[in-house]
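Sample A.
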Amino acid sequence: MTLEQLHALFLAYPTICTDTRKITESCLFFALKGPNFNGNKFAKEALTKGAAYVIIDEEDHRVSEQCILVNDVLQTLQKLSTFHRNYSNAKVISITGSNGKTTTKELINMVLSKKYRTIATKGNLNNHIGVPLTLLSITNTTEIAIVEMGANHQKEIAFLSSIAQPDFGYITNFGKAHLEGFGGVEGVIKGKSELYDYLIANKKHVFLNADDPIQFQKLGSYTKRIGFSQSDHQFYNIKFIDANPFVALEVESIPIETQLIGKYNFTNCSAAILMGKYFNVPMEAIKVAIESYQPKNNRSQIINKKGFEIILDAYNANPTSMKAALENFAIMEAKNKTLILGDMFELGRDALKEHQSIADMTKNLSFNDVFFVGENFFAAKTSYEKFKSFHDLKEHLNQNRLKKGALLIKGSRGMALERVLDIL
């Protein structure tokens, strides 16, 4: 079966499934493989549950004419998504960066959906499987697709760009994330900049934070750059007002009060506003979109519970986002401030140094109580309470109740620190 024939089949059965536990009637089941699973083995089950066709790459599991044999299921999924992306008339905006990708993507979607029919990456499905699935969710009515791209090593963004072939792109920032895979901060900058490389090589438009020296330097005099800045009037001006705790900003003399905490969210909002202006979304609609957005999924959520004002930022963490969160928490107005910080993952040989840096920073910011949890923080030198595992932290908190007040909970996803909420 040719790619064109497979795409015609997809148009007839436009729902993609990769998990037999989520099979829907008349879907196309792509039998993906991984280190610990082989989707080919579930081809018969997928058909039994109602899949119209299954795409496999092992002859032994060809149980009926509804099984389409290809050389490599994953590559077929990726090629199909690129074919569909080019078949569609939708404009594609790609987003990457070390921090704030998902929040920025959601803000952009909120703003642009005020005028256009949009689709956007669901959750954080931003890898070599998630990007194709997002592209394949484009329908014949979609006008703009916002595609988030994640990476933990070099060449990955370049590969995802070749799949999505974006018309526009934006990099949120370059931070200390996935240092182990990227090979240090310079590797992060090089890896994330692969989106710039694709856009420039293909003469596409680039959105940028012109106040970020790395972005400004890398884009130089590129003529298709569209930027925002607080001070440089050759770019669109957006003014930061405050973040105590929620970000307030001003654009075209119009105040915007967000429901996002932390100054670090100013640039995320600014990028969405800039894109709204570029795509001619009315300013009043942009204001409504930004002000109505509420964070979720453990990303800087504000939760009031049993006398605690909790900032739950337990979706992920790296040294850059951790420091930004601590600086923001330090300037918040609150009588009692408690920190529960979990390990930051994928830092490689820099892990101990970066955890020690955070431990030192907490001391200098003079919080009331600080609790560290995880093997890396446990190895750091600090006078604050530290626990090697979440179980140890839980035992301590069950016997020693936290002082009520403001509480920041932050750590990498693998720490699952949202479990603290069940202890309070």
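Sample B.
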Amino acid sequence: GSDGPPGGEVEKAQRAAEGSSPTIFSKILDGSIPANIIYKDDQCVAFRDVAPQAPVHFLVIPRRPIPRISRVAESDAQLLGHLLLVASKTAKAEGLEDGYRVVINDGKQGAQSVYHLHLHVLGGRQMGWPPG
């Protein structure tokens, strides 16, 4: 597969530095950057992706800034489970009854461009396999 267009996510991921904060997501959480929020509770927020890769593409992020899925601890288990439950509930609310994909990118080779854990939920079209 291709790495996508110049300036795309893969290129952003190559430039992104872990620990450079505040991230765009912390600015969405504090309200200093607007977002199209479709779900929120005391632990997480879901909002539409600004560069959607499918007819439905939203992100679920924890309010607590965990930088990477590879950096989680046993104590994060409840929160991680909650993020998946919210992804499922929000996908249903978005009409994705025929299925969808949940993606978590980790690090440079995983094309992670924002170092604040986020679940991509993509649906509304047939997904291909293998991904990437």
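B remarks: The chain has three helices and five strands. The chain has one domain: 9-123.
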